[in-house]
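Notes from the 1:1 (GR / supervisor)

We went over the backlog. Supervisor wanted to see one worked example end to end before approving the batch request, so GR pasted a single chain during the call. The sequence is below; no edits were made to it. Supervisor asked that the structure be written out right there so they could see what the output format looks like.
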Amino acid sequence: MKSLHRCAVAALCSAALWADKKPVTLEAAAAVRPPDIIQAAWSPDGARFLFTEARKLRLYDCAGKDSRVLASLADLEGKAKSAKSSGAFQWQNRRVAGARPQWSHDGKTVLLAVSGDLFLIDAATGDTRQLTATPESEDDAQLSPDGTFIGYRLNNDLYVLPVAGGKPRRLTHDGTATRWNGRLDWVYPEELQISRAWWWSPSSRDIAYLQFDVSPEMIHPHVDASPIQAVAEPQRFPKAGTPNANVRLGVVPARGGKTHWMDIGPTTDKLIARVQWMPSGKELAVQRLSRVQDHLELLAFATATGKPRLLLEERDPAWVNLHNILHFLPDGRFLWASERSGFRHLYLYGEGEPKQLTSGDWEVLELAAVDSSHTTAWVTTTKASPLERHLYSVKLATGELRQRTTQPGTHTISMAPNAAFYIDGWQSTKSPLRQTLFDNAGTPLTVLRDTPIEKIDYTLQPVENLSFRGKDGTLFYGQLIRPANFDPARKYPAIVMVYGGPHVQTVRDLWSGANWEQALAASGYVIWRMDNRGSNFRGHAFEKVVHKQFGKIELADQLEGVDYLVKQGFVDPARIGIYGWSYGGYMTLYAQTHSKTFAAGVAGAPVTDWRHYDTIYTERYMGLPSRNEDGYKAASPVSAAASLEGKLMLVHNFQDDNVLFQNSQHMMEALQRAGKQFEMMFYPLKSHGVTGPLRLHMLQAITGFFDRNLRPGS
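Structure output shown during the call:
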């Protein structure tokens, strides 16, 4: 356990670093921009990568350690057609694959989608050829592996365009307003993290695609009230217990012809979570989940017959977590990750029993690459600490594990497909992001991006990562920011920053910068957060205790964290606030209706009744409403509105596409009927978060609310 005294000493020692710098203001926090991160698109040979910088597409050569401009995005936008809208607002999920540059298989050309049109760029010369110039947008364009065709989606149908020239060929002909070929609905990418719905075969002869029939899904009647004549903007949003889209998996020849449908079975109670071609090009690997996600099957579908064979299955009494670790080797073996031991680890499948390559009370998170000899896998894990991320190499023959990154903190890895080079994005609570290019021997070649801490304009209070034991011995991790000019003899107001939900971890060894929390600390608040049971990356047992009972255990753990904080002696227990967004907004309402700890709370975009949230997320954790009525009722702050304690502010976008505004509306009605007063601040954006120019307004409103209710004399 880290001592708070040692943390205080470290905080004092770091004060000199920030001398003569200005405090973080709300204006600065609202204006914070993400760092200029290189997002590499690696060439097939692993020797080069593409990235964008200052509106330019650049090509970096790893051996030469230099880059050159390949194309100007502004110039390409000038050539693209401007009218790309069909008129109606499209509720496309933000997790759908974006228009990143794509290499041809031979590494000679690059496909780039700009403003809805398609361009082909010669990687050697930078010569650019415009392939489309149409009023419509050619969506989700992909270059065939042999470089002869471009596939794309238009008006819910799939097309291919010969690279050499000629007219596009329409492959599917039955797309409608509710039948979507190669197009994802809203909930699949949001909750299954699947980013596209069609895939080229390795031979370029065929295309596999998902067809979504969204007609069974509920329609939420969003209305844009900004114009004089309000505009209806309905969104397909399946709520817990209601029908999902019906999904089919088909294969169509790239030169045209009839779609051959895979025998996937009825999907009314199944989810098609992952699809990828196997190396032979004759089979599709499909991950199929039960509706409540307690049973996963990895199936190989023969495209000639449409029939499946079972490769493996996973079961769990609560739920099976999805991941992206499935890699086929040329000899037919494959790598897979499983939580069957209680922690996610790497397994090698072949003939006979699978071989477990890693083990321990830590987790394998991502497969970065497999080397060209197919003998070594490169993975990121939590082995050093649940708060850190490090790169390791794993020998497939022996399971020999070797740590490749050494600096304490978080390492985000972008690795060439053959593992020849990698970019290590390293940061910690004490160090801003630095991206360095390495070869696979671990030799640093050059620093690509760096922000020296000395160049930061603002005084930042130290972010302290702590650990403590709960009453039953559970180890928890917390994070503390002390106020400016901290005096341990004083009693400060505190704000608890909470998320609390599954699949998220908020206490990490990460750089935070000049954010809102720093602005609050600069004005005299103690900032505290912790990860309760139910949060991610601590093993499945730590996470799944919330199964079918949202709110109860999360709050119990958060209250233990508050008790630990108060016992340190510098927080006034009568002036503790709580803030959270999304699941954190839900936790804020649950805390204020199920405890008396918090004097004030701000609930941003909160779920207030889990029957109003989407099918795939909610049913994974809470089961079907028809089979867990008491659990849904007990988890709803609406049901406990009469028990509200402390001051409350609700914040929400009217057209939130994720947590529907209906949630806040129902909470407001319940509070009004119970005679409970509250404040509210609503925004007109069509998104889950408040961004852009309105963000400063929101931060001012929330900070003002806490000042009115937590400052001395409030």
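Supervisor's comment: The domain at 7-33+454-710 is CATH 3.40.50.1820 (Rossmann fold).
Batch request approved.
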